[in-house]
């Protein structure tokens, strides 16, 4: 029997992520109802749909009615087109020289912010006799990353005017602090953005798709919605915590009611009964205070389980929480299951997700690891197979 066939028929390493496309569709509907039918949702599926699987998620979103998908670059768009996804795709961070013809062939929509980008696309579109290639113009209103500085807007506008094969369909910017409710920079950015819109109208441009809002702004900054919004993490069931005066705030108006899409599971590989004063794992950083039963889990930081959870995080085993003990290693993690009834080799263990009223979510992991939910989800590696339901 061939090795590939053996792998298909056997459970070689039982660690997997269950992705609920039903919850993804539900979350898309929640966002669309929140903003209203008159505003377009550009569903962001960059970074392999935040670790959930871009092709499968994009297909589900397209079926649910998403008219736009947002990706980082051409290399993320190609697998979507190869999978037969026909929804409009926005390249949110532009393109590299030499990619212009492939962008046109795949009917993608590039973001531009420099005259040179406009000229490259115009040349390619003219060479392929394309009537009009839609492009979106990004403005830097204070994020300090990508986008045309408002002071340089005239040069880009002039290049667009000289381009007979391009159509300025969209205008965008990105907010630096949408989750900080009292951040003065947000209003400053919105004011600069409106000034740019006015300048563009004076130059004869009035793009129909105007988009600023990410997930945080979709929830808390109605004034930023315009004609299109770009939710990302909300589609997968999360948002960053909101702050005011440096303190976290919450409330019904700051919740969308979305559901986490991904559940991460493994199984107990081995059970070990150890004595008191036994050092566990690399460096012996955890020492048992009493006799203990330790479950060995076939998952580690190579799978994306953050090492900062060592002796801090927890998992769910048989309707109970079990603490992670010792250092998380590349392939293995230890959990203390002392006193838990009926624990056996092969039992399912929830690393991320909810079970029987218990929950360990990506936000909990992010707080323990001093990072954010984006990194926790995106870090789940390719060697963790995704299963879809």
Cα-atom radius of gyration: 24 Å
Assign the structural class, choosing from mainly alpha, mainly beta, alpha/beta, alpha+beta, or little secondary structure.
Answer: alpha/beta
Indicate the overall shape: elongated
The CATH architecture designation of the largest domain is Alpha-Beta Barrel
Helix fraction, binned, reads 25-40%
**CATH class label of the largest domain:** Alpha Beta
Number of domains as seen in the coordinates: 2
Distance between the termini: 30 Å
Strand content bin = 15-25%
Query: What is the fourth-level CATH superfamily of the largest domain?
Result: Alanine racemase
Instruction: Report the strand count.
Output: 22
Q: For the residues shown, what is the average pLDDT?
A: 95
Pick out its properties.
Lyase, Ornithine Decarboxylase, Chain A, domain 1; single chain; elongated; 389 residues; alpha/beta; TIM Barrel; 24% strand; 2 domains; 22 strands; ten-stranded mixed sheet
């Amino acid at each position: 029997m061939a090795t590939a066939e053996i792998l298909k028929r056997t459970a070689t390493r039982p660690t997997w992520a269950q992705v609920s496309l039903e919850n993804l569709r539900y979350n898309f509907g929640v966002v669309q109802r929140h903003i209203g039918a008159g505003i377009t949702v550009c569903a962001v599926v960059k970074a392999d749909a935040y670790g959930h699987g871009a092709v499968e998620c994009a297909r589900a979103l397209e079926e649910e009615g998403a008219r736009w998908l947002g990706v980082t670059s051409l290399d993320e768009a190609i697998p979507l087109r190869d999978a037969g996804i026909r929804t409009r795709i926005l390249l949110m961070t532009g393109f590299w020289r030499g990619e212009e013809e492939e962008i046109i062939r795949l009917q993608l929509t590039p973001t531009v912010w420099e005259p040179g980008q406009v000229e490259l696309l115009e040349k390619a579109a003219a060479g392929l006799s394309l009537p009009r290639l839609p492009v979106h113009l990004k403005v830097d209103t204070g994020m300090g990353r990508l986008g045309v500085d408002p002071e340089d807007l005239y040069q880009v506008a002039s290049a667009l005017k000289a381009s007979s094969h391009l159509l300025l369909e969209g205008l965008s910017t990105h907010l630096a602090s949408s989750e900080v409710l009292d951040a003065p920079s947000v209003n400053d950015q919105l004011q600069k953005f409106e000034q740019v819109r006015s300048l563009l109208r004076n130059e004869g441009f009035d793009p129909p798709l105007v988009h600023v809002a990410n997930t945080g702004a979709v929830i808390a900054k109605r004034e930023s919605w315009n004609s299109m919004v770009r939710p990302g993490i909300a589609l997968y069931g999360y948002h960053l915590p909101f702050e005011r005066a440096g303190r976290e705030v919450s409330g019904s108006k700051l919740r969308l009611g979305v559901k986490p899409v991904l559940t991460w599971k493994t199984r107990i590989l081995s059970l070990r009964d150890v004595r008191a004063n036994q050092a566990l794992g690399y460096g012996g950083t955890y020492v048992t205070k009493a006799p203990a039963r330790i479950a060995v889990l076939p998952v580690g930081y190579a799978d994306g389980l953050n090492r900062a959870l060592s002796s801090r995080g927890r998992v769910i085993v048989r309707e109970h929480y079990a603490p992670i003990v010792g250092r998380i290693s590349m392939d293995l993690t230890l959990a203390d299951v002392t006193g838990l009834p009926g624990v056996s080799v092969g039992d399912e263990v929830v690393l991320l997700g909810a079970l029987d009223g218990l929950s360990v979510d990506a936000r909990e992991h992010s707080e323990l690891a001093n990072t954010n939910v984006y990194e926790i989800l995106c870090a789940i590696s390719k060697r963790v197979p995704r299963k879809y339901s």
